[in-house]
Design goal:
This protein is α/β, with parallel strands linked by helices and 368 residues long. Helices cover 35% and strands 19% of the residues.
């Protein structure tokens, strides 16, 4: 039996009230401030994971009760001890690899200092997050009748770890790509890296709302805590894969635009007949985010190493973890949006509302 742990944190008020319903009556800001002083705790025991190779794994969710706002506003030297404490709890439980979730892999040096402080390997899960987001976005585009080789794409948060590798891979499959981030100098440096390796036109922008207006495919993976894309920003028939947590795309897009397909990025079906995460974090049974899945995949493969760490992810890392996912029976879980499945007939209705033609074959980005 292989063992892993995954350190996560609350993203929104519902993450607190799901566990403690009484907190609904207390202003969220008060809850945030109170819980940032609470030490890490074991949230649940994860059981029933079984690879199609026969390998088995168990693990633990360990919570650092700090919200994105608190994590970003608190000096990293004060956040680091909390994450390291959670990591040592994981080690005491017998975990042989530790994953970092959401903003725990964004603050500071993206897991490097955490890994240095622990004797157990650490991974951010960003390689499989990128791979599954690309798979999902291109499959959704094909279902919407969008031919990737003719499409205009936009990557929001393109200079980040996930955004950068997504942009490098996606640029090889589309006609035009716009890279979006706050720092123009870093954007232009990335543009210079990507442009020689693709026939696509590569543009840059610091304005996400303008950059998505002509896009057929949008991948949103910015670490911004505010909404970046509103209903009026998108063209009819656009596909938006929102990988960011908290989300970059307003929920109003779903409510007001019946001609746009918004999907969650990185939602994975985990193998095993009796998978039990021991905690309701907003997903259906046997489903988890790709960063969690990467940690489990590495445990099943006995790859006890710092697979994804720091600010850079290579194309080779994304290809490798995607291959291992296929080997062990992990799958991109259809299309989901705001924690619910999107039925096939709804996708078809969105396509018809947008006036797009029938579905096309998706490009082969990765091979199993």
């Amino acid at each position: 039996m292989e063992r892993f742990a995954f350190i996560l944190h609350p993203l929104r008020q519902s993450d607190f009230t799901r566990k403690y319903p009484i907190l609904k009556a207390i202003p969220f800001r008060w809850v945030e401030e109170a819980f940032k002083h609470v030490p890490p705790r074991v949230l649940s025991h994860i059981t029933g994971i079984e690879s199609q190779t026969g390998a088995q794994a168990e693990g633990w969710f360990i919570a650092v009760p700090m919200t994105p706002r608190v994590l970003l506003e608190t000096p990293f030297e004060k956040v680091l001890p909390q994450i390291v404490q959670a990591g040592r709890m994981a080690e005491e439980l017998g975990a042989r690899i530790i994953g970092l979730g959401a903003f725990l892999k964004v603050v500071g040096d993206r897991g490097v200092s955490v890994a240095r402080a622990l004797s157990t390997p650490v991974t951010t899960g960003n390689s499989y997050t990128a791979g599954s987001a690309l798979q999902g976005a291109l499959l959704a585009a094909a279902r919407m009748g969008i031919r990737a080789e003719e499409a205009k794409a936009t990557v929001i948060g393109a200079t980040g770890a996930i955004g950068s590798v997504c942009a490098r891979i996606l640029a090889k499959h589309v006609a035009e790509i716009t890279l979006v981030a706050r720092n123009r100098e870093r954007l232009e440096a990335l543009q210079e890296q990507i442009a020689p390796a693709t026939s696509a036109e590569v543009r840059v922008s610091t304005d996400s709302r303008t950059a998505v207006r002509d896009a057929d495919i949008v991948i949103a993976v910015s670490s911004a805590t505010d909404v970046l894309v509103e209903p009026e920003d998108l063209r009819p028939g656009a596909v938006v894969c929102d990988v960011a947590r908290p989300r970059n795309v307003s929920s109003a897009v779903y409510e007001k635009r019946n001609d746009v397909l918004v999907i969650d990025g990185g939602v994975i079906r985990v193998p095993g007949e009796n998978v039990d995460f021991g905690f309701n974090f907003g997903f259906p049974p046997k489903h988890a985010e790709a960063c969690i899945a990467e940690t489990i995949i590495l445990a099943l493969e006995r790859r006890y190493e710092c697979f994804t760490l720091g600010a850079d992810i290579s194309v080779q890392q994304v290809e490798e973890i995607t291959r291992l996912a296929h080997k062990h029976g992990f799958e991109v879980a259809g299309f989901r949006r705001f924690e619910r499945a999107i039925p096939d007939e709804e996708v078809e209705q969105i396509r018809r509302n947008a006036g797009r033609a029938g579905a096309v074959e998706p490009p082969k980005v990765f091979t199993g």
